Amino acid sequence: MSSLGPLPTPARIALLVLLLAAYPAVFPRTLNFGFSLLLFAAMATAWDLVGGWAGQLSLGHAAFVGLGAYVSSLLWTRLGVPIWWGILAAMAGGALLAWAWGFVTFRLRGAYFALSTIAVAEVLRIVANNWADLTGGPEGISIETLPAPFGLNLFSRTVQFYLALALLAVSLLVSWRVGASRFGAWLEAIREDEDSSMALGVNPARAKVLAFALSAALTVAGGALYAVHLSFFEPHGVFDLQLSVQLVLMAIVGGMGTVFGPTLGAFVLLGFQEAFRSTFQQASLFIYGVIIVVIVRWAPDGLAGRFRTVWRRARDGRRALDTVA
Amino acid sequence: MTVVTLLQTAAGGILTGGVYALIGIGLSLIFGVMRIVNFSHGELMAVGMYTAFVLFRHLGLDPYVSLLVVVPAGAALGVAVERLLLAPIARAAEHTAILMTVGVGLILSNGLLFIFGAHPQTLLASYSTATVRLGPITLSLPLLVSFALTVVVIAALYLLLTRTDLGRAIRATAQNRDAAELQGIDTGWIRTAVFAIGTVLAMAAGVLLLPLLYVFPTVGSAFTLKAFVVTVLGGMGNVVGAIFGGLLLGLVESLGASFGATNYRDAIGLVAFLLVLLVRPAGLFGRSRV
To answer: What is the pLDDT of residues A246-266, one digit of tens each?
Structure first.
């Protein structure tokens, strides 16, 4: 820890990305798992912008995952718009939705906002399920061909892995920039006490909407990448409340409002899920339930916070001993 | 659409709405006293369904009779969850409690999935498809019985809240926790009692719905959402409002479905819910109260 301590955050992000870049060479057989780790880490980091830094508990981020998956793949399969333009269009659409959604719902605080996010995601799922002419209905969408930018085969698991890594790097950098900026300080002030933050000259409505739109755009990009990876998906898989809850859990388990917390949480949770897959089979979310209860009960600041506390205690304890000696 | 079909649809909607009300009341009571939005409410209902289902399958116990087992079991489960998991975080931030109930819900639904498997099952009692004719209208017998029992349960709850010391203590705690504490009320145990009552109501609603629905482990999540809709329509923490919210949701769903929006049945309630949240966050019936 002490050797990593003085290292500036961007250098730590670069180090993490470099380490992860070696994954396909070391574990070539588990690229799907590696892709999930990175994608979910990126989306959990995106969630944390609004959920952790701004303290607005969104339980409807699956709305953005689904939006990214549907908009980008429909633009490609229906209109032939290359998938990267589709992703950009979907990100703009997601940010716009978040802006409008935040504009009307951020008057609601606490539980009310959380409830409204679930309702929005559910309504989108029901629409995707029933508007069969546009979305293919419950049968979903199947992506059979993909364009090949610079000769890259987007169906290749290795290419998808590095795209997810790029998204994670961008998410971490955004999270770091937000955390280090005045904007991040506004968000933290809002999280701690919205009324006092207004007294200090912060405009909570504007700051929250901006954080929400930023979070949405990154999550939408993750959803689009997820669609490419799955190449076949249906409304239930991408709009599900469980998916929203998973992202929230990763951020909380790792530590909300920290740059690396959500990534740590994603790795821990997906690791557990993979390890217990054969034990619980289809009930693999059981282990999520157990972890969330244990974390909320005994480590409410997440693992990152828990480590910090334990480490500080150990350090202070050692110093105390040094003084005595 | 003829008048008779309209009446028929409306009557069916109101009867279903009664059971929605039962689920919503528990959620509203818990929010009113504990300030916790219980995200495991539908899952508790599913546990009630499966308890009655197992009692029927293995002991041949009639679902309505099994209420005699489910009610005390629900009270015990509610007390255990509150004492072990919710009470220790009572003073923490609001989102902590939400997450805890999300975790409890995941454990319950995936536990059921683990034990019973994912395939939907149905309980076929002798009266499952029986109907009663009321003039030109035909009503499902189990739905009618469920509604009647719902009325009984709500009446009992009303008496409990207005005529007993426990009820007075609950209402006092909902109004002002600190003031209630100063009157010598152990508000910690009141919260436990309220969570137990809410759990009993949810599990009882599950039993009442059992003869009418397919039962599968994730049946609860749709009902958690319905309970949210009911309580927000009626005003969070407003028990009387939740009754009307439940009847309204049942009516709107049933009429909406009969006007050709069958596939959007669940969306109707959610859109109404969003609109109420935005326009009248205190609910359709004004001030929040228990």
So the answer is: 899 889 888 888 889 899 989
Distance between CA A4 and CA A308 in Å, rounded? 13
- Min Cα distance A112 → chain B (Å) is 7
Cα A257 to Cα A280: distance, rounded to the nearest angstrom? 31
Look at B107 and A286 and tell me if their CB atoms are within 8 Å. Answer: yes
**Residue in B107, B225, B274 closest to A116 by CB:** B274
Chain B, window 200-259: residues with a beta carbon less than 8 angstroms from a chain A beta carbon:
221, 225, 228, 232, 236
What's the CA gap between B108 and A261, in Å, rounded?
27
Residues of A in contact with B113 (CB under 8 A): 282-283, 286
Interval A187-202: pLDDT, tens: 888 888 888 888 888 8
Strand locations in chain A (E): 141-142, 232-233
Cβ A288–B274 below 8 Å, yes or no? no
B140: part of which helix (H) or strand (E)?
A: strand B137-140
- Tell me the ipTM for this assembly: 0.81
Question: How far is it between the farthest Cα atoms of chain B?
Answer: 60
CATH classification code of B3-279: 1.10.3470
Question: Domain spans of chain A?
Answer: 9-240
Residues 6+ apart with CB under 8 A from A276: A284, A286, A287
CA distances in angstroms from B176 to A13, A239, B187, listed in the order given? 49, 39, 10
- Single-letter amino acid code for the residue at A263: T
Q: Is B12 on the interface with A (CB under 8 A)?
A: no
* pLDDT, average across residues B239-261: 84
Flag if B95 and A112 touch (Cβ within 8 Å). Answer: no
Helix %, strand %, coil % for chain A, to 5? 80, 0, 20
Residue of B nearest to A279 (CA): B114
The pLDDT score that the predictor gives to residue A220 is 95
pLDDT-derived band of residue A288, with 50, 70 and 90 as boundaries?
confident
Q: Which residues of A22-38 are buried (b: 16+ CB within 10 A; e: fewer)?
A: ebbeeeeeebeebbbbb
Structural domain boundaries in chain B = 3-279
B234 or B266: which carries more pLDDT confidence? B234
What single-letter amino acid sits at A266?
A: A
Q: Which of B82, B91, B106, B278 to mutate to test the interface with A (most CBs of A within 10 A)?
A: B106
Stretch (H or E) spanning B132: strand B131-134
Please answer whether residues B33 and B187 qualify as being in contact, where contact means their C-beta atoms are separated by less than 8 angstroms: no
